[in-house]
Amino acid sequence: MNIVIILVITNFLKTLFFILVIWYGIKLFTKYIVPKMLHRTVKNMQSRVEDQFRQHQRPGRPEGDVTIEKNPNQSRNNNPKGEYVDFEEVD
């Protein structure tokens, strides 16, 4: 009977020890490693956005230069009178 009690207490303490090790492992992981991973992820995302921004800028144009770009797929209105606009009378 005494050996059974000793085994139960030993297994309980072993289980308690593993629970505490896992608990503190998770605490340390979330305190030190997760912020570094998030910082690295945010830095990578920021650099990607900056690269995309640079790609969309058009180099070589001086500031204030005006250009008109037309869409070649845009259909032209061939009506000689122009486009009809319906106006409302204002009292």
Q: Can you walk me through this structure?
A:
By secondary structure, the protein is mainly alpha-helical. The protein has a domain at 1-52. Helices cover 60% and strands 0% of the residues. The chain has 1 helix and no strands. The mean pLDDT is 86.
Topology:
Layout: H1 2-56
Task: Please give the alpha-carbon distance between the first and last residues.
Answer: 104 Å
- Inertia-based shape: elongated
Low-confidence stretches: none
- Bin the strand percentage: under 5%
Rounded radius of gyration (Å): 36 Å
Specify the helix fraction band.
55-70%
How many helix segments? Answer: 1
What is the ordering of alpha helices and beta strands? H
**Overall mean confidence score, pLDDT:** 86
Sketch the major β-sheet: none
The helix-and-strand class reads mainly alpha
Number of strands: 0
